[in-house]
Amino acid sequence: MRAVVLGGVVASLAACGATPSAPAPTTAVPAASTADASPDAPAITAPPAGYTIVPGSRSPDGAWQVLIPTLDSQEGDNPVCETRVVSVRTGALLTRLPGECFFEHQSQIELTPRWSSDSQVLVWLADNKWGSANVQILQLAGGAVASLYDARPAAEDQVLAAVRAASARKYAAARKRGEGNGAWFRDGFAIDVHPTIPDEVRWPIAFTIDITSDNKCMWPASDRQGGVMTATLDAAHQWTFGPFVAGHAACGTGGLVCAFSDCD
């Protein structure tokens, strides 16, 4: 098990490993309006049947919160799984968060919602065993969705290009060995894209991007490839990437890149 500090919050990461299933059909939910963020809106007492509130997901202004399916709701054939941002007072739907959906008490998953102090930005982080599964950034304006951005793809592209440039031979070998690892892996590599949020979400958001070709430490050290880079993301979703520090993961530490050794 790996303990990762996310801005002072310790997230315990345990095994996931499951390949994401095909998207389930969505269900009809009343849409939120600007009135749903108003303190004059009528209050509700509980989330709808089959859903529960994610701990720590309520916005600082008390207007919004995140719901995920309950464990019981996932029984049977083709259960609906949605991650919803809803009005605290009315329950109306603001938006459904894309990416992999997780349900209450799902084994080996850690959910870490973080808001800006003005309740205009939500960073939705979901971790599995090897790293982040979802890093969604929701921006609001006037009680409505202004943008919804998935931070993982661009960060993955950048770090993969850096690894490939460091050693095309090892990259090709890692890609071949990693075939069939599952949808979460990119080109056979485990990539952990993690925001660093000291106390609240502020722009630009700092990230650490770890990568390794051998997340289970099964290969000889000389065959592993990986490293780490830092980055920042601004409110316009523009990235600034730092230099890539090449290295391979130390076995037995439980992290992607917990210690480095020089490698070609």
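The record above closes out task 2.4. Task 2.5 opens with a second protein, given below.
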Amino acid sequence: MNTQNSQFTRDEDNHNVWLSKKNNPEFNFTDYGIEPMVLDSESEVGQAMLNELYKTAASKEGDINIALLGGRGAQQLHRLLGELAKTSEQDELLGRLNVFTQDALAPLGMNNGFSFVRDFERILGDAFFKKIKSFTPMQTDTKDLESALIEYLTKLEELGGLDIFFIGHGPEENQASHLAYIKPFSGAQHHHIAGIIPISGSILDHHISKFKAGGSLVNEIDEKECRSAEYILTLGPAAILQAKKIVQSVVDADSAPAKVQTYSNVLKTSVSSDKKEALQQLNVNPGLWIRLHPNTKSFVLPNLGL
């Protein structure tokens, strides 16, 4: 893909392709920490996430750009939004929403049951997608994944970036973690807004298990196609850091018990103020990127043992 005529530049390292906006400002590696809010139930987490959307809607005029979180973490939020969409109670708010996905496996048919798009449609429902202003998924069924990702990013940038990045926390080997699908040792840096990176066995297993745990409608044919995916499409650190607000939810430590330790590591590990050391830490454990955002909410359940 030639990025010469686009607003993005391209970095490739060890088969990891990362896209960046041209003329990125210098980044100050400031660790703001993370203060989890422990809530009693998954329903309360969903309501807390919805309340953050209401706060953003009240604080600004015009469009609201959000990145949906796939898998288990935001299912209660999606159910609440789906129920609201069946009424006229929040039609004005829904009509302001530009909705983006944040990661995907590819190549993968958009109708595959392990596609985030299908899972969002299943829980949010038809009424939600009819009422929102726009829905922009990452395209996973094209031979030119990079061109499709640039089109996606161009729209996101034209709309002014994300107001809310709804994000999760995924466990990785060696007690590390990922945000979106930024996996360890993928070379992600602060200016990388999105990437196409080789898939890993841990990401693939995590993806499939969280879909099954979340009740997704899948079958053996879908799983076979999913397991043949070669790449991860993901928003990168720049999309996280430049979002106006991060809203994290971690609700599934019962079915993914490794999160108890991996979340604790993010909670207790300070990111170095030295840029070189910080980048090494973040490459080993991308879950730490969330500590560098000044406006973060992290909603969790008691099963994290905090």
